[in-house]
Amino acid sequence: MIFQSILIDSDITKNAGLLDDYEEHLDELADLLVESASDERINSGALCDCGAGPVIMQCHDCTEYRATCVECFKTKHLNNPLHWAEVWQTSDGFFVRHDISMLNHTIQLGHSGALCPSSTGSRKFTIVHHSGVHATRVAFCGCHENPPNKTRQLMRARLFPATMKETKSAFTFTVLKECHLHNLESKKASYNYMGALRRLTDNSFTADDPYSNFLRSIRFWDYLTMLKRLGQMHGIDRLLPHRPEGNLVLYCPACPEPGFNSEPNASSVKTPEFLRHLNQIQRTLDGNFQCNQYKKNSNPDDVSLCKGKAHFPVDRDYRAYLKENPGSTEKSTCNYLKAVNKQDKKKFKNMAITGTVNAQCSHVFILSSVDLHYGEKCVIELCET
Ligand SMILES: [Zn+2]
Ligand SMILES: [Zn+2]
Ligand SMILES: [Zn+2]
Ligand SMILES: [Zn+2]
Questions:
Q1: Which ligand is closest to the CA of 282, given by its number?
Q2: What tens digit of pLDDT does each residue of 333-353 get?
Q3: Burial status of residue 123 (CB atoms within 10 A of its CB: 0-12, 13-18, 19 or more)
C-alpha cells in the first residue's frame, strides 16, 4: 500500500512540474501563436521568389510554407489541392480563407496534377476532406476514354464518389477512414463528425451539408473495408474452401479447425489424453437485453449489404422463422414472482428489438448473432432420449 501511494505522489509531482514549465513559457507561447497567423513578407510590398507577383498567399496546412504569389501557390499545391488558401486582403488587412478553385484553379484528374490535353472541362464539385467541405472545381481526363469513367478516375485519386451516376461530390479516403476510427474509438456519430467538418470549413455553417451523402458513402466504405480485410477481395475462399463461401466473419485463430490450424482428427489420434482439452471447441451463447432498439420510422426499402454472410442472418428469413416459432406463452405459476409475467408488458414496451444474442467461442470471437423480438422469457424444453 505504501509503495502504491509513493507512485501516485510521484505521478502528481511530475505532472505538476510539466504544468509549471508551461506556465513559465506562457507569454512566449502566446507571442508565437499570434506570430503563426501572420507573415512578415506579406503586406510589405515584397515580391515572390519567382519575381512575378506580390506575396499574398499563405498556407497553414503545409509545414513552414514560405508565403508566395497566387501562381506559385497553385504550382506548389498541384498534389495538395485540398489545402486551404489563405489570401491576404490588402484593402481589409486580414487573410480570407478560400478553396483553391477561387484562385482560378481546377483539380485535374488522371495526370498526377498535370494538365490533360483532352480535359472534359472544369465543373463544380464538392470534396469533403478532413480539413473541411471544399466547394471546388474538378476536370476529368478525356485522353483514353470519352465519355470518361468518372468513378474510376475519382477512385484513383482516392476520392470516394457520393453517387454512382452524375456524381457532383466525393469524400476523400482519408475522411472516411478517420470517421470510421472516430466511431470505433469514441462512438462518435457521423452526424457529429460532419458537424465538426463544417465548423472546420468556416465555423458558421455556411458550407453545404454533406451528411445524407456521407451516410450512404461511409456505409459502403465500411462494407468494402470489411471485404478487403477479410480476404474476400483477394479470393480467400479458394484457399479456405472448408469455410462458408463469401463469409464475412472473423474466425478465431486459436480455436482448432481440423485440417487448417490443427491436424485432422488430432484430438483422437495424436494428442495425449491429458492435453485433449486444448483441442476442444467451446461455444457459448450470451444474451444482452439492454441492447434494444425502440420502434421508429425507418426505411422499409433499406437493404443489407452483407446478406447473411456476416454475423446476422438474412432479416426476411429470420422473421419467417420467428413467425413459425413465436415462443412460449407459458406464465409463471409462482404467486410471488410477478417479474417474469411483466417482462413483455413494461420492460420492452414500444421496442422493435428487445436484445441481442451472440454465439461465441471461449476466446470471445463472435460466430453469429441474432436480434431478439419477444423480450426475455424462460423456456424449458424436455427432450426424450
Ligand atoms: Zn499547403
Ligand atoms: Zn511566385
Ligand atoms: Zn488526360
Ligand atoms: Zn476461439
A1: 4
A2: 776 666 666 666 667 788 888
A3: exposed
In the chain, what are the domain boundaries? 36-105, 113-229, 244-281, 282-326+338-377
Statement: the pTM of the whole predicted model exceeds 0.90: no
Cell of 109: 484528374
In sign, the C-alpha dihedral spanning 246, 247, 250, 253 is negative
Distance 22 CA to ligand 2 centre (A): 39
Rounded Cα distance, 327 and 267, in Å = 38
Dist. CA 50 → ligand 3 center (Å) = 28
Q: Which of 158, 151, 293, 133 is closest to 214 using CA atoms?
A: 133
| Range in 8-22, 83-97, 112-126, 173-187 the model is least confident about | 8-22
Peptide bond into 244 cis (omega under 30): no
Ligand 3 mean position to 369 CA, how many Å?
49
pLDDT tens per residue, range 282-328: 899 999 888 888 888 888 888 889 999 999 999 889 989 988 887 66
141: CA distance to ligand 3 center in Å?
Answer: 4
Nearest ligand to residue 72 Cα? 2
- Ligand 4 centroid vs 260 CA: distance in angstroms? 14
